[in-house]
Structure formats: C-alpha cells, structure tokens
Amino acid sequence: MMLRFEYMPSDFHPLFLFLGEAADLAALARLLRRFAENPQAVAVAERIPGAVPRDELVLVPADEEFGMRDLGGRFAWKLTDWQAERIAERIELLTPEENKSGSELVEIGSEGEIPVKVSRGEFTDDFLVTRR
Question: In 10 A of CB 34, how many CB atoms?
Fold first, then answer.
C-alpha cells in the first residue's frame, strides 16, 4: 500500500493530488469517515501506513474557510463532518475491483481553496516518488 500525495503548483490550475490503488484510496476514505465521526486535527501521513507524502497535510475541522489550504508549504484540508463524509463516498466509488482507473476532482466551492484530485491507475507507479 502506498498512497502518494503532493501539492502540484501552477500559475493557472494548482491542485493537490492523491495517487493510489484501490486499497490506498479505501484507506483515505476510511480516514475521512473517522474524521467525520470525530472532527479533530489529524496528520494524514501518520494515520495511513505506508503513505508517501511530499507535503505535510493535516485534516482539520473547518473554521471560516473550507477546502484545501496552503499554510506556507504545509497544507490543511478544512472540512466539516458532512463534507468529509461526502468526499469519502466519492472516493469509495473509485475502489471497486472492476475499476482499473478513474479520478475525482473535489472542490468545496470556497474562495481560495486548492482543488483536490484523487486518482487511481492514471499515473505510473513512480509518479510523485522519483519524478519531479
């Protein structure tokens, strides 16, 4: 299992990218569901064994902002319990064995948020690990 994630900067379309196979994405969905049950700050890499992050990411309860936020090189995914539950449902749609690839683009609709792309089978195994 190796969930990979990284911020992908761009002048026009920056995004935060999660890459993995079915088991990796299922682990991310489970983490989001646990967060929805008990919203508190959670370091994603610490809660998903084998995760390979390039950037520090923490799930945090939403305050006056929602969605993925750049905190100066560290990232916070600010979600309500309801938002986390809905995102987990969308990610789980990518996990059935018959799905060989697919992706979800997650945006809350909050001004200034960074879109989050969750992808299965669309990139080579070394993407975000050895390529830069």
Answer: 16
Report how far residue 48's alpha carbon sits from residue 101's, in angstroms, rounded to the nearest whole number: 21
pTM comes to: 0.90
Q: Cα separations (Å) of 9 from 4, 63, 86?
A: 16, 24, 26
Amino acid identity, position 14: P
Distance separating alpha carbons of residues 37 and 59, to the nearest angstrom = 13
Report the SS3 class of residue 67.
strand
Can you tell me the distance from the alpha carbon of 98 to that of 101, in angstroms, rounded to the nearest whole number? 9
d(CA 124, CA 110): 31
Closest among 48, 57, 7 to 25, alpha carbons compared? 48
Q: Which residues of the chain have pLDDT under 70?
A: 1, 123-132
